[in-house]
Every structure is written in C-alpha cells, then in structure tokens.
Design a protein that fits this description.
With about 210 residues, the chain is α/β, with parallel strands linked by helices. It contains ten helices and nine strands. The chain is globular.
C-alpha cells in the first residue's frame, strides 16, 4: 500500500476534479497526463463520480487515481471497491480513521486540535482545508513548530498566483486545486486548455 506521503509526492499539484460524465473524466485525465500530472482527485460531488473513478483507474493504470470529499466509512468502501488508490476527506472522524487498511487516507484538518487528534489516530500527513479560510500560509508556518514532523497538502483557494508560495514552505509537500481544470474550459470541451494550464503550472513551480 502506498502511504499518504507517497501519494503526496507523486506531483506538486493534485487536481481537484468534479466531473459530469465518465467520458468527461477520461478526456480530462488524458489531458492532465499530457500536461505532466498523473494523479487525480475525483470528488464525490457528482452522481457519476464513482463510475468515473472506476473508469479512470482502469484506463490509466500507470496513474494514481483517488477519491475526494469522502466523509464516512460507507463512501470509503465504495471508492476502494471502485479502484481508488487513495482517499481524501475534508475532515477526520474516528470511524473514518479506522478505514485505512488497503489504501491510504489523507484527512482534512483546520486547527491544531484536529492535527493532534489525527496524530493520536496514527496520521502524520493532512490536507489543510479550507486553506484560504483557516489561515493559509500563516497557519502552516505556525503549525511548523509544534508539528515539525507533519506534512500538509493545502487545498481551498490555491491558484496559479499563490501555489509557489505555499510549496516553498518546508511542511508542504503538494497543493490541491482546481485552477488547472477550469469548469468553463471543460464545459466547452477545451481539453487542450487543461493540458496548457497544467504545463504552465508545473513550469512555474520548478
């Protein structure tokens, strides 16, 4: 099993995707791979999400396909059975913490107490969410001293303008965001735009 930290090290950017059809998810992931990103967080925000996870995992076995917005053990089991390689949640409960057996969980935190609870349950890698609301770069700097061994993937309000600043922090391994998968371009079927934005983002972060 991959660890959450190993998942975070696949790419500096984990694209956060809400897809409207299986075909759209396949075209979108193909565009991301062409742009240089081979990890996907397909969120459970649409009715086709589970089918999309299954289709993408099968079509791109070389990539790392995960499920986002997982909030309970039932959803965890469903996406695990669908072929997800990892799970991301907006928070962490005791029942969800016990689900990590065969695929890793990257749980969301917003406060020092959240981190302490996660550490107590055996986690040391977290999604800071929603990063732009709970303190962003300032919060991550503050967490660095008392939680020096903890790794973060900030998500929420991350974009082309601030991603590099987040990634400059030593406790940030990657960032999650949707700016490289813009809904307007996807709605138009402009997947070349996704490839272009992905390439530009990776160049700017090197």
């Amino acid at each position: 099993m991959l660890s959450a930290r190993e998942v975070m090290q696949v790419s500096k950017i984990i694209p956060v995707m809400s897809v409207n059809s299986v075909d759209e998810s396949l075209r979108l992931c193909e565009a991301l791979i062409e742009g240089g990103v081979s990890i996907f967080e397909i969120t459970l925000r649409t009715s086709c999400a589970v089918d999309a996870i299954a289709a993408v995992a099968k079509a791109f076995p070389e990539a790392t396909t995960g499920a986002g917005t997982v909030i309970n053990p039932e959803q965890f089991k469903i996406v695990e059975d669908a072929g997800a390689s990892f799970v991301i949640s907006p928070g962490l409960t005791e029942s969800l913490a016990k689900c990590e057996k065969f695929i890793p969980l990257l749980p969301g935190v917003a406060t020092a107490s959240d981190i302490m609870q996660g550490l107590e349950w055996g986690y040391d890698a977290f999604k800071l969410f929603p990063a732009n609301i709970v303190g962003g770069i300032g919060a991550l700097k503050a967490f660095g001293a008392p939680f020096s061994e903890v790794a973060f993937c900030p998500t929420g309000g991350i974009n082309a303008d601030n991603a590099k600043e987040f990634l400059a922090l030593k406790n940030v391994v990657c960032v999650g965001g949707s700016w490289i998968v813009p809904a307007d371009a996807i709605a138009k079927g402009d997947f070349k735009k996704v490839t272009q934005l992905t390439q530009e983002a990776l160049r700017s972060l090197n």
